[in-house]
Amino acid sequence: MHRLAATPGGWTPDAEGVIFVEQSPAPIVFLTAADTDLQCLAQVMVDPSALPAVRGVNLLQLQQQLTIDTYADDVLAQAHIIIVRLLGGRAYWSYGLEVVRSLVEDTGAALVVLPGDDRPDPDLISLSTVPLAVANQLWRYLCEGGRDNLRHGLMALCDRVLDTRFQPPSPQPVPRVGRYRPAAVLADGDEPVPGTVGTVGILFYRAHYLAGNTAPIDALMAEIGHAPSRRDTGGLRPVAFYVSSLGDPEVQQDLLAEIKAVGGADILLNTTSFAVAKLDGSAPRLDLWQRLDVPVLQVILSGGTLDAWQQHPMGLMPRDIAMNVALPEVDGRIITRAVSFKTTQQRSAALEMDVVTYEPVGDRVQFVADLAARWVGLRRTPVSERRVALVLANYPNRDGRLANGVGLDTPQSCVEILQALAAEGYCLADIPADGDALIQALTTGRTNDPEGHGVRSVHHVLPVADYRAWYDTLPATVRSGLEQRWGTPEVELAQYWGDHPTQSPRISPAETGFPIAGLHLGRVFVGIQPSRGYDRDPSLNYHAPDLEPTHAYLAFYLWLRRRFRVQAIAHVGKHGNLEWLPGKGIGLSATCYPEIALGALPHLYPFIVNDPGEGAQAKRRAQAVILDHLTPPLTRAELYGPLQRLEGLVDEYYEAQSLDPTRLSVIRDRLVALLRESHVLEDLAAPHPSPLGAATGEWGGLAGASPCAPTVDLQGSEPLSLRVR
Predict the structure, then answer these.
(1) Is the pLDDT of residue 427 over 70?
(2) pTM of the entire predicted model
């Protein structure tokens, strides 16, 4: 066993050692699950003369039994008042509550146990040793929130327990919903201005507003409103709102009124945790999102540290995944990135603790702002001018597996998507008549199938100069990994063209570059997703977590963004390989390959409904909106064509043996002819040919079939394929 220092974010199960919180005793000890409580408490204790000495600790630091026991002996045993504020009920800190309850029975200290939100929890409050009215009064102060209410709440509690004479005012109400207008960010005001293309709403907890813990929100507003890349398109208008809890119907109504008062929003960036949906009935009750009718991006304010995120391959810890990813997914929110992490910026001498705040990460904030801008741009672009790409999976890399999707007739679904887009006013041309025509059109040009390389025309390329200019901007670790695996872009490019740099009359030698497989149909592109590189090395796996994509793979998505100027991408059918590229599991960084390839683009993904685990990969690692389609209905596969006729003749021959043997020779001749015509005899590959015995039923010797040839039932229950309409 070794000692661990208390760190922002608290103890994690994979940490080796025990945390010891080193503080001296004080009359009042405040234990809470919320850093915002401690931030306000530190502000209160800037002038410690007004109150008895106070110690504060985040319960995340008190998760190990030895830590709790030691802190109870060293600090809690000498306290006169112990305040415990919990999120998640009694079970969240069950051992700690047992220890504290036992301790106050011996010391006579006043214990106040309160819920960490504004929802009453009689079970928790019943653990208090003070009268219910005293506990409820402190809870009201804490629910209203802010520095002044916290100070007055502690004063009122001291008056009742320690016989002081502070006589503070009653809890002062703070609106549960309100506008946040930071002067430093909105120097030019936040009212609509000429040229504005859209309004971006930002939601965050009121507790952060009251504690002054708003650095991530300020960073988002600054990046959205003032970044040059978005000013060139007219700029976006950030409007921020604080809320106490989105789960409260009254808060939802107030929020809708606030958003309406600013003229509505084109998109929402939500930083609050948990879900609005209620799954205790037949419907999830998503009235808030349905009435807003805009994309909702889930922006993660991580409860961990920047260092832990950078070093851990998963990215986010289980606590973050549960509160900020998995539960928000129930609402259908679009998962983006972690834009801030907990850090220690100052120490409170009065509390004898480090004050933890959220510190934004610049490139993660920029990614979210870019993604929001592109969703707004897509929404604001006239339908006839929108540019969309449909990307078809292709694994293994043969034309026979082109546009494969589990439980989905992907080619026909793609055609019907194109027809639906055309009906909505999208600019399309030369839509294939059906799925077969689509595949035929795709295979007239270059595909991933190596048998067609050097033979089929290449209709689209990304010039190597364009790729190199972009490639040189990638992080050094990314470039190093790519080159160790595949060599430089120029080395890989030589493998594609060889001695024939101009295989298409549409491409001049100056434009030679990475070939792009697909069809250009007006403002919609139907592309074939490139291989990750497993085709070059059979030992590599489709889902390999450490297989870097090829330069050609990255060039495909770069061509879509830079040359085709795509505004949204849809990967059609389960499943492609973008979401399986190397990188963090959740909360991606700038060195994660799904982000490098796709960038900050709106992403849609028709996906079979019975595989949420693999669909979650695309949601969490590629900001995908999953469009579930049902599983195909089960039916008998049946036979078709020559095999169906063969089955009929076999049944007819069997019946003729007992009913009309004179017909056997006629049926036999028809059978032999059909077997030869359909090449079934070749498939049997019989080594000992022998003639068919007339009217004997000697099927083992049928026109060259092996006497040991197995009987195979070609019928069975198999799923039909669905189409996306």
Answers:
(1) yes
(2) 0.85
